[in-house]
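Researcher: I'd like a structural prediction for the single chain below. Treat it as a standalone chain; there are no partners to consider.
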Amino acid sequence: MAGTEIEREQDYLTMLYEHLDALRREAVDRLDRLAALSARTGGDGTLDRDLARTWQVGEVARLDAVEEGLCFGRLDEQDGTRVYIGRTGLFRDDEDDPLLLDWRAPAARPFYTATAAVPQGVRRRRRITTRGRRVVALDDEVLDPAGADEDGLIGEAALLAAVTAGRTGRMRDIVSTLQAEQDRIVRSEHPGVLVVQGGPGTGKTAVALHRVAYLLYTHRHLGARGVLVVGPSRIFLDYIGQVLPGLGENSVVTATIADLYPGVRDVTADRAEAPETVELKGRASMATVLATAVQDRVTIPDAPVEVEFEQQPLRLDPADCHRAARSARRAGLPYNQARLVFHRELVGVLVRRLVERLESVVLTDTGEPIDGGDPGGALGAADLRALEAAGFIVHPDDLGPRDLLDEADVANLRDALLTDAGVQAALDDWWPPLTPQRLLNELYADPAQVTGLTGAQQRLLRREPGGWSPADVPLLDEAAALLGHRDAGNTAGGTIADRAAADRTWTFGHVVVDEAQELSEMAWRLLMRRCPSRSMTVVGDLAQTGDPAGTSSWDRVLGPHVDDRWRLVPLTVNYRTPAEIMAATTDLLAAHHPGMSPPHSVRSTGVPPWRLRTTTAGLPAATAEFAAKEAAALSTGRLAIIAPRAQIATLAAVLRAQFPELSHGTNPAPESKVVLLTAEQAKGLEFDSVLIADPAAILTGSARGHNDLYVAMTRTTHRLGILHPGPPPAELVTVAEVHQP
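Model: Treating it as a single chain, here is the predicted structure.
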């Protein structure tokens, strides 16, 4: 019976792939025709043609992306209807008659939510496992008691097979194994900020990515602005990079916070800073510090000033300057745009003074003209120079007494003053042009110049120029918003994702923030500017916060931007981490997060975590020895060694001799069989086996070292070993101790 059913499903799957191939050929043909047309016209295409070509490129990529696992399910409904579920929708000529229903379609939802108690019209749910274009297994679940004679009631076999399979170094989508708890979040229609709080292994990252695919499917307008996915590190973004393309979505920009300022995108923001400095720079109060620093750059003279134009002085009084500054600030523009208003206002004053001078000659008590002109009102040498600078051609007949200048003459004088280097230099002394980089470098060089900073804060901020840290990026972005500075790359062509990634001012249709507990208050300000609609999916775990500027309260970071218009939904089931390992974290959570319970694990491996006591000198050799044993025990899958930052170089030197393929450093490759990481780098990743070297140093390595250790302990899907120099930390005493043979 099973063989016959597999053959039937194979026939249907083959037909689906034939249909997919036909669609792909049509898309490629259309793309080729557009390319040929562009070649005939010398590349001078219309905007509509360029947009059509961009869309067609995306369509070919989408059809390619759904190749693997095209169809993964079937619903047999009580009315006799049979519906196949897959990664995308495929239709006969009649679009009301689907060959394959997109998993995001409303009619597909019972595949994830129907139960025996509430079958939702479903008689049988079938999970179809494929390898390439071949059906390899079926998993039937009968939901209607009337169909109890059906074969194949296996339950959650597909889910358990997925979570126990060896890791590949890349996150797989869970579209075929979404659970009801997860599906409710994926399909949530909450219009604002949806916060998904979940412990290790609850699938919160996968849920967030599937929610993006669902929203892009159900709200097509989001694709016009694109979606931003923010992760904690580049290694994490590489790890999840295939999920959305595999679900057929390509209008997505992935970035870390440090990537989100174009001015430093090509220069890695990796300058090291003390945790206290990182914490200070992350505070929301830094927005006020920067606003004050910007305001302080405007310095109004407190005495009359003479501005020279074409070798003649023009007087500006403090009242003129204050009046111009008030007009500029009332305009409500950013600093650099307001600066132009300030310049225009003062140039207007200078123009009036110059016009008055040109139209009349003032004499001294002895009867000599002050401006070098003629007592009878004729133009003198200084007057002629000013007029020539303004573009006038002065004829000899014009040297006598002159009527009022007309509007065109005055406009020419204004333009001449605005472009005069001497005038510009004088005005720039009072309201100088600024870039975000210059503002921050000047602030860091002399923090005492800004009011509102304590002496201790000034010492934390003071540094020499040269490179940027990740904590600087939100400050650069804040400064750019205050200054009205547009630092954008080439946004003329390419996909929406390409254009959005190059433009700091781009606003996205939706934003996903993963490991969101790590973001500072200043980083949240940056993200809110990227998403004025406040349509966001935020996922994280407050028990895993490691960044000095991270948060322990969602309301603290979200409340200032959305008030109470955010919704918290929990994920409570751990599908990844075995119960034995979660039990080992109980003392750690109790010591540092009293009242917080770990998520419930759905499986047990029968393999308890272990710890080994060694010495500081013996730690590298012991780590290499046990790493070799763990790697040998993994027929497939990945091993991670997680250690404090100070131990990475020493351990790498020893481990490389054992594992030439070892990956470590700034951007380790998650697909490597053996990888050496800090707890910060391991955040969000998963491995088949994990060794933790020197947990005490991880605990004391930062103010939130206990959270870092919790992260390290929960990265594994199967096995966990801990090597500790000297006595174990109190939080790990109950972990079973082993001894070296």
